[in-house]
Write a structure and sequence with these properties.
With about 375 residues, this protein is α/β, with parallel strands linked by helices. It has 2 domains: about 5-160 and about 355-370, Glycogen Phosphorylase B (Rossmann fold), CATH 3.40.50; about 170-350, Rossmann fold. It has helices at about 10-25, 40-45, 60-65, 65-85, 95-105, 130-135, 145-150, 160-175, 195-210, 245-250, 260-270, 280-290, 300-305, 320-330, 330-350, 355-370; strands at about 5-10, 30-35, 45-50, 90, 110-115, 135-140, 155-160, 185-190, 215-220, 240, 250-260, 275, 310. A 7-stranded parallel β-sheet has the order 3-2-1-4-5-6-7, with helices on both faces. Strands 10-9-8-11-12-13 form a 6-stranded parallel β-sheet, sandwiched between helices. Strand 4 (about 90), helix 5 (about 95-105) and strand 5 form a beta-alpha-beta unit.
Length: about 375
């Protein structure tokens, strides 16, 4: 029996890791799994050693403030791996933590695959040398990443984006409208999954939404956070839902979205959106010095052009968010163009079945290696 250990540190990584585990089990039902992850991996029958609720730290300053906890987590993770003795370690995104573990795992004779590659093309490209030394195979989910890694002679595969499967599966199995007392159109707010980003942006997003009384405003709560956490943000005009993000997007006419996976999810449901990003001043100042990309949202990064408006740091205000939504509402041509760009983006991502293809390739190479 082959033993596989998985490390994911965020809600999106937990989602993709769970889908991967499901496909791995379909192709080999004798595999044994343990992981750092969340409810989605847990629902796949994976034993969770550390929950992602304890892991998400955002920004340079926040990492520094929690550095003792992070190092404690690294020690704990190493102990988990030594006790489990996996045949394969699958690292899912979460680069600040996972690249440290990759180096240690390689030195301890553990085979390392990386699923959802670290975005070193955005900053710290020098990390490629460490990755080449410690990672046996890299699986990326953005089309342009393959060329980047191949340029550095790394063993890399692009087998599609797993969100295509997740969204299309939902559309096939669900055709539901949200049960609301009124029939007003819906304005969705997706504030992210980390407490730090929610604290900074959700009040601004809610304030912006107050300019649209003709809409029902609904906030998608993160699966890794308890509903009780959101009590302080609640107002009489705003609804909060959990584990209904896709249902919400399927029924929304407009969206305010935190940069990250959610921007791509909104695009796959073809919801016109405004993208927001705001971190601490110090974190943003450092990032601006180091990061060398034109866009922060996955939608714009993949398309290599501005499809959706990005409001970053000082531009991320309630008035500017509301202003951009008004432009989308009033500018029919703008909404039509965004929809067309979404269609082109989906074609660029390729075919469905990414998780299945990645599972097949991982198992094939694992057995060759062993």
């Amino acid at each position: 029996m082959k033993k596989i250990y998985i490390i994911s540190g965020e809600a999106s990584g937990d989602l993709h890791a769970a889908n991967l585990v499901s496909e791995l089990k379909k192709q080999n039902n004798s595999l044994e799994f343990r992981a750092w992850g969340g409810d989605r991996l847990r629902n796949e029958g994976v034993i969770i050693d550390k929950d992602i609720k304890e892991l998400a730290f955002m920004g340079f300053l926040e990492v520094l403030l929690n550095i003792r906890t992070i190092f404690k987590n690294i020690r704990s993770c190493k102990e988990n791996l030594l006790n489990f003795k996996p045949d394969l370690l699958i690292l899912v995104d979460y680069p600040g933590f996972n690249l440290r573990i990759a180096k240690w795992a390689k030195s301890n004779g553990i085979c390392v695959y990386y699923y959802i590659s670290p975005q070193i093309w955005a900053w710290k490209e020098s990390r490629i040398h460490q990755i080449k030394k410690t990672v046996e195979r890299m699986y990326c989910i953005l089309p342009f990443e393959k060329d980047f890694y191949m340029k550095h002679s790394l063993n890399v595969s692009y087998l599609g984006h797993p969100l295509l499967d997740e969204v299309n599966k939902f559309k096939i199995l669900n055709n539901n409208s949200l049960e609301l007392e009124n029939k007003r159109p819906i304005l969705a707010i997706l504030p992210g999954s980390r407490k730090q980003e929610i604290e900074r942006k959700l009040p601004l997003m809610i304030a912006a939404s107050s300019q649209f009384p003709e809409y029902t405003v609904i906030v998608a709560c993160a699966p890794n956070l308890d509903l009780a956490y959101y009590e302080k943000f609640k107002t009489q005009e705003v609804l909060f839902v959990k584990n209904q993000t896709y249902n919400l997007l399927q029924n929304a006419e407009l969206a305010i979205v935190t940069s990250g996976t959610a921007t791509l999810e909104a695009a796959l449901f073809k919801v016109p959106q405004v993208v927001c990003y705001k971190s601490s001043f110090i974190s943003f100042w450092i990032a601006k010095k180091l990061i060398k990309i034109k866009f922060i949202s996955l939608v714009n990064l993949i398309a290599n052009k501005e499809i959706v408006r990005e409001l970053i740091q000082k531009d991320c205000t309630s008035s500017k968010i509301a202003g951009e939504l008004i432009k989308i509402k009033k500018g029919e041509k703008k909404a039509i163009q965004m929809n067309k760009d979404y269609t082109d983006l989906i074609e660029l991502l390729g075919n469905e079945g990414a998780s299945s293809r990645v599972a097949e390739d991982m198992l094939k190479n694992l057995y060759i290696a062993k």
